[in-house]
Design brief:
Layout (H helix, E strand, L loop, with lengths): L10 H11 L3 E2 L11 H10 L14 H15 L9 E4 L1 H13 L5 E6 L5 H7 L3 E6 L8 H7 L4 E7 L11 H13 L4 E5 L18 H4 L2 E6 H4 L8 E4 L2 H14 L5 H10 L8 H16 L5 E2 L7 E5 L8 H12 L1 E2 L1 E2 L12 E5 L4 H11 L3
Parallel strand pairs: 1-11, 3-4, 3-5, 5-6, 6-7
Antiparallel strand pairs: 2-8, 7-8, 9-10, 10-13, 12-13
């Protein structure tokens, strides 16, 4: 009997497979197609000849853990203990899975805000927890009254994604304060804050849970070097959490993967000495603005994009099809792949919105936009 009877093939897999079959430009799955920083690849080439190929300590490569602590202090003014409050993970997805496995027990309820990243619910189900999915408003703001009404003595966790995937929305200060008020009323709830796009924000920076004293002592924060440094295939992320939570998370981590790829950890550790994360947002803002300009004469309506490298668009002026069918036809007839937003909802809510990834070189964006403007 399946542990996940209602979970099928991921929409990312479906769309990327179709894109390959039809030789379409793949703006669906969230991965960059431009070269990695040569400084990083040079570090990898050199380190590959050195003694960095055996297991690292379970929690991570010690120099990298120290630099994560330094990065957190520089970025957010938070001092974290490298020994007890940081864990290097095989991507943020493994960190999120491990966190939920460690904290969520049988019949515990976990609040998930829809549209939501597709790994959250399966993780909760595999822990025998109960996913409680609450839809965002149609403008992707959060209805905190609904969130509070869903909280009870069985609620173990609330998951937030900030900046938000798939919508690119950033939580405001008012949002954070309302979340703090809810958690103050329910002191047993743990917050899981997925902040993998933390360094890809535009007009305003996101408010990290790292900066909120009322939240961080009961929160697990997930970050991703793969997203930050355009090396998604390396699958290196990290968690920050208070010692009492991290102690439980490490118990699961040691039997799940034990330790993370040693060469990648050593390379990122060195790279952090020469790169500035402040360069990342301007780089992606230029891509966002360029892609939006290219689509400005199309019939797609551009939704706000405050962070991440995803642009949500409405196709209401083009078609009345449901978003899954529209995305499939976009591939078969126009050779561009996108992701339908309805697949991120529990009830497949369809607002005729789709998502493009603009983490591509300019030539790819130009070629895709030319095809999209002809629709």
């Amino acid at each position: 009997m399946s542990k996940l009877p209602h979970i099928g093939t991921s929409i990312f897999t479906i769309m990327s497979k179709m894109a390959a079959e039809y030789n379409a430009i793949n703006l669906s799955q969230g991965f960059p197609n431009f070269p990695v920083d040569e400084r990083l690849t040079e570090i990898v080439a050199r380190l590959a000849k050195e003694d960095v190929h055996q297991y690292t300590p379970m929690a991570g490569y010690p120099p990298l853990i120290s630099k994560i602590a330094k990065l957190t202090l520089q970025s957010y003014g938070r001092s974290v203990d490298p020994e007890t409050e940081i864990l290097v993970t095989t991507g943020a997805t493994q960190g999120i899975f491990t966190t939920i496995q460690a904290i969520v027990k049988d019949k515990d309820e976990v609040i998930i805000l829809d549209p939501s990243y597709d790994s959250y619910e399966p993780n909760v189900l595999l822990s025998n927890g109960i996913p409680v999915r609450i839809p965002l408003n149609d403008d992707y703001t959060t209805n905190w009254d609904l969130v509070e009404k869903a909280c009870n003595e069985n609620t173990k966790m609330i998951i937030i994604t900030n900046p938000h995937n798939p919508t690119g929305k950033i939580l405001s200060l008012t949002d954070i304060e309302k979340l703090e008020a809810i958690l103050e009323k329910f002191p047993n709830i743990i917050l899981l804050s997925d902040e993998v796009y933390e360094y890809i924000t535009f007009e305003q920076k996101h408010i990290s849970v790292n900066t909120r004293e009322l939240l961080r002592n009961r929160a697990v924060i997930a970050s991703s070097f793969g997203k930050t440094f355009h090396v998604t295939g390396w699958k290196v992320g990290y968690l920050i959490a208070p010692e009492q939570l991290m102690y439980e998370i490490k118990k699961v981590h040691q039997f799940l993967v034990f330790s993370v790829n040693s060469l990648s950890q050593a390379a990122i550790s060195e790279y952090l000495d020469i790169v500035s994360v402040d360069e990342i947002s301007p780089f992606y803002q230029q891509k966002r603005d360029y892609f939006r300009a290219l689509l400005s004469k199309s019939r797609f309506e551009l939704m706000p994009c405050e962070g991440t490298y995803f642009q949500v668009v409405s196709y209401k002026a083009i078609s009345n099809e449901n978003d899954v069918d529209f995305c499939k036809r976009l591939i078969t007839e126009h050779s561009v792949a996108a992701i339908p937003i309805s697949t991120f909802y529990e009830n497949s809510k369809d607002l005729r919105l789709i998502r493009f990834c603009f983490a591509k070189d300019n030539a790819t964006l130009e070629k895709a936009a030319k095809r999209l403007c002809k629709i």
